[in-house]
Design brief:
The complex is a heterodimer. Chain A is mainly alpha-helical. Chain A has helices spanning about 25-45, 50-55, 55-65, 75-105, 115-130, 130-145, 145-170, 175-185, 190-220, 230-240, 245-270. In chain A, helix 4 (about 75-105) packs across helix 10. The radius of gyration of chain A is 28 Å and the shape is extended. Chain A starts with about 25 loop residues before the first helix and ends with a helix. By secondary structure, chain B is mostly helical. Chain B folds into 2 domains: about 5-65, no CATH class; about 70-270, MetI-like fold (Orthogonal Bundle), CATH 1.10.3720.10. In chain B, about 80% of the residues lie in helices and about 5% in strands. Chain B has 11 helices and 2 strands. Chain B has helices at about 15-45, 45-50, 55-65, 70-105, 115-130, 130-140, 145-170, 175-180, 185-220, 230-240, 240-270, and strands at about 5, 10. Chain B has a two-stranded antiparallel sheet with strand order 1-2. In chain B, helix 5 packs across helix 7 (about 145-170) and helix 9 packs parallel to helix 10. Chain B is flat. The chains are: A mainly alpha, B mainly alpha. At the A-B interface, helix 1, helix 2, helix 3, helix 4 and helix 6 of A face helix 1, helix 3, helix 4, helix 5 and helix 6 of B.
Chain lengths: ~270, ~270
C-alpha cells in the first residue's frame, strides 16, 4: 500500500505561473482597456484596398530594384549627396558640442543660479521636444534650401541632447575635488578647468561621438524637407520612380550608418 | 612621470612630449577636417538668403504669434490618427521583434551559423533606416494613408526593440534556465518558464519607451503622406498659414509631453 492510496488525502494542487501584473483588478482592467482601445482604433482606420492592391506591382518593382541596385547611372548624385551629408554631420556636431557646453554649465543646478538654470533648461526642453524634421522645416523657411539649414537643424537638436546629458553628469560630480580646488583660492573658471572638466570630459567625448553617429542618421532624413544631404538624393530618385537607384542609395545609407556606428563605438571604447 | 630640468630646477609636467604631440596632432587634424567641411557647406550655400534670414525669422514669428485657435477642432481627428499610428505600429513591431530577438540571441538561437546572422541582418537594416524613409517607400507602394504609417513605424521599431531585447536575452541569469532544464523540460518549455519571465519586464519597458519615440516620429510621417497630423502640417506650410502651424506645433508639443510622462511613469513602475 502506497501513500497515494490513502483515502481522504487532499486533491493534488496545480501550480500556475505567476501573472506579470499581480493585482487582478489592474490586470483585467488593463486588458479590457486595451481591447476597447484596439476595437476603436482599428475601427477608425480607413483602408483603400483597391489602391493597396494596385500598388503591389510597384512593390514588386521596388523589390526587384533592391535585388539589382543601380549604383552607376546616378553615381555622381549619390556621391555628392553623401559628401554633403558627411560634411553636414561633422560641422553640425562640432557646432553643437561647442554650444552645448555653456548651456550644460547653465543647466547644472550645482553651478548656476536659478534664473540661468531655468533659461538653460528651457532651451534643452524646446530642443528635445521637437523632431529634427520639424526644426528643419523652420530652418529651411529661414535659410532657404540647402545644407546650411541642415547644419542648423542638426546643431540645434545636438544642443538639447548633449547639454541635458552633460548637465546631469556635472550635477553628479564628486564635491570633494571642487572643495579642494576652492581651498586653493581658485577662481570660478579655474574650478571649472581643474575640478569639473577632468571629471566629466571622458564621458562627454563619448557622448559627442555618439551624437555624431545620430547626426549622420538624421542627415539622411532631413533632406526630404529640403535641408540637403543624401535624403534629397533619395527623395529625387523615388520621385523619378528610379527604384534601382533608390535601392542603391538605401544600401549605401545602411553601409555608411553601420560604418559610422562601429567606428564611433570603437573610438568610445578606446577612449573610456 | 615627465619631469624636465630647466636651470637646475626640476619642473613637473602633466604629459611627456610624445603624448603632448599626439594630442596636438588630433586637434590639428580635427580642426582641418572641420574647416574643410565648413568650406564645402559654405560653397553650397546661397549667402544672400542667409543674410536675409533675420528678416525672414521676424516675418515667420510675426505670422506665428496670434495662433488660429478654432483650427484646433480640425486637428483633433488627425491627432487621434497619429496616436493610433504610433500605438498600432509599436504593437506590430513588438509582435514581430520578439521572435526575431530570440533568433538573434546567441543563447536561444536555433542555429548560430545560419539563422543568427540573418536575424541580426534584419535588425541592422531596420535600425539603419529612419521611419520617415520607410514611410516614403511605403506610400509609394501602398498609396497614402494610415496603413503606410503604421507599417513604417513597425518596420523601424523591429530593429530598435529587437536589438535591446536580444541583448537582454543574452544577459539572463542561467540558474533558472538550468533548473528548468533539470526537470526534463523541452526547449520551448525552457524558453517559456526559464527565459521569458526574466525578460518580460524588459519587453514591457522597451515597448513603452519605443512607443514614446514613435509618437514623436508619427507626428511627421504625414509630410510624406503616411497619415496623421503631419498631413495638416504640410498643408498649412504649403498655404503659408503659419498661424495654423503654431496650433499644430502646440498640439504636438502637448502630445509629446503627455506620452513622455506616461512612458516615464510606466518604466518607473516596472523597475
Amino acid at each position: 500500500m502506497t501513500l497515494l492510496e490513502v483515502r481522504g488525502s487532499p486533491p493534488p494542487r496545480q501550480w500556475r505561473k505567476q501573472p506579470f501584473i499581480v493585482n487582478p483588478w489592474v490586470r483585467w482592467g488593463l486588458y479590457l482597456g486595451a481591447l476597447v482601445y484596439l476595437v476603436l482604433a482599428i475601427g477608425s482606420l480607413e483602408f483603400n484596398w483597391a489602391r493597396i492592391i494596385a500598388g503591389m506591382d510597384r512593390g514588386a518593382a521596388f523589390i526587384a530594384g533592391f535585388l539589382k541596385p543601380d549604383f552607376t547611372s546616378r553615381w555622381q548624385d549619390i556621391y555628392e549627396g553623401f559628401l554633403e551629408s558627411l560634411t553636414m554631420t561633422v560641422v553640425a556636431t562640432v557646432i553643437g558640442v561647442l554650444l552645448s557646453i555653456p548651456v550644460a554649465l547653465g543647466a547644472a543646478r550645482n553651478l548656476a543660479p536659478l534664473p540661468v538654470y531655468l533659461v538653460c533648461r528651457g532651451i534643452i526642453a524646446v530642443s528635445r521636444a521637437f523632431q529634427e524634421i520639424i526644426i528643419a522645416i523652420v530652418f529651411v523657411a529661414m535659410f532657404g534650401f540647402g545644407p546650411l539649414a541642415g547644419v542648423a537643424t542638426l546643431a540645434f537638436s545636438s544642443i538639447g541632447f548633449l547639454a541635458k546629458l552633460l548637465a546631469e553628469d556635472i550635477e553628479d560630480i564628486d564635491r570633494q575635488q571642487v572643495e579642494a580646488i576652492q581651498a586653493t583660492g581658485a577662481s570660478w573658471l579655474q574650478i571649472l578647468n581643474y575640478a569639473i572638466q577632468p571629471q566629466v570630459a571622458a564621458r562627454f567625448i563619448g557622448l559627442s561621438l555618439y551624437r555624431l553617429d545620430i547626426n549622420f542618421r538624421e542627415s539622411a532624413v532631413i533632406g526630404i524637407v529640403g535641408a540637403g544631404g543624401i535624403g534629397a538624393t533619395l527623395n529625387t530618385a523615388i520621385a523619378r520612380y528610379e527604384y534601382d537607384s533608390a535601392a542603391a542609395v538605401l544600401l549605401c545609407i545602411i553601409a555608411v550608418v553601420l560604418l559610422v556606428e562601429y567606428s564611433s563605438g570603437f573610438l568610445r571604447r578606446r577612449l573610456l | 612621470m615627465p619631469v624636465t630640468v630647466t636651470g637646475g630646477q626640476r619642473c613637473w609636467q602633466r604629459r611627456d612630449r610624445a603624448a603632448q604631440l599626439r594630442i596636438w596632432l588630433v586637434w590639428l587634424v580635427g580642426t582641418a577636417l572641420f574647416m574643410a567641411a565648413w568650406s564645402f557647406i559654405s560653397a553650397q550655400t546661397i549667402w544672400m538668403f542667409v543674410w536675409d534670414s533675420p528678416a525672414q525669422a521676424y516675418d515667420l514669428a510675426s505670422r506665428m504669434v496670434n495662433p488660429r485657435w478654432d483650427y484646433f477642432e480640425r486637428i483633433l481627428w488627425p491627432l487621434w490618427d497619429t496616436i493610433n499610428i504610433a500605438t498600432l505600429g509599436t504593437l506590430l513591431g513588438v509582435i514581430i521583434a520578439i521572435p526575431i530577438a530570440f533568433l538573434a540571441a546567441h543563447n536561444t538561437t536555433p542555429s548560430r551559423a545560419l539563422i543568427r546572422p540573418l536575424a541580426l541582418l534584419i535588425i541592422v537594416s531596420s535600425r539603419s533606416i529612419n521611419s520617415l524613409i520607410w514611410a516614403l517607400l511605403l506610400v509609394l507602394i501602398m498609396g497614402p494613408g494610415i496603413l503606410a504609417g503604421i507599417i513604417a513605424i513597425a518596420l523601424r521599431s523591429i530593429g530598435f526593440i529587437g536589438k535591446l531585447l536580444y541583448e537582454a536575452i543574452e544577459e539572463v541569469s542561467n540558474e533558472p534556465v538550468e533548473a528548468i532544464e533539470a526537470t526534463g523540460a523541452s526547449r520551448m518549455q525552457v524558453l517559456s518558464y526559464g527565459i521569458w519571465p526574466q525578460v518580460l519586464p524588459t519587453v514591457a519597458g522597451i515597448s513603452v519607451y519605443r512607443w514614446d519615440i514613435n509618437i514623436r516620429e508619427a507626428t511627421v510621417l504625414g509630410l510624406v503622406g503616411a497619415g496623421g497630423i503631419g498631413i495638416q502640417l504640410q498643408a498649412s506650410i504649403n498655404n503659408l498659414a503659419w498661424n495654423q502651424v503654431t496650433v499644430i506645433f502646440l498640439a504636438i508639443l502637448a502630445t509629446v509631453f503627455v506620452s513622455e510622462w506616461i512612458s516615464a511613469r510606466v518604466r518607473h513602475a516596472l523597475i
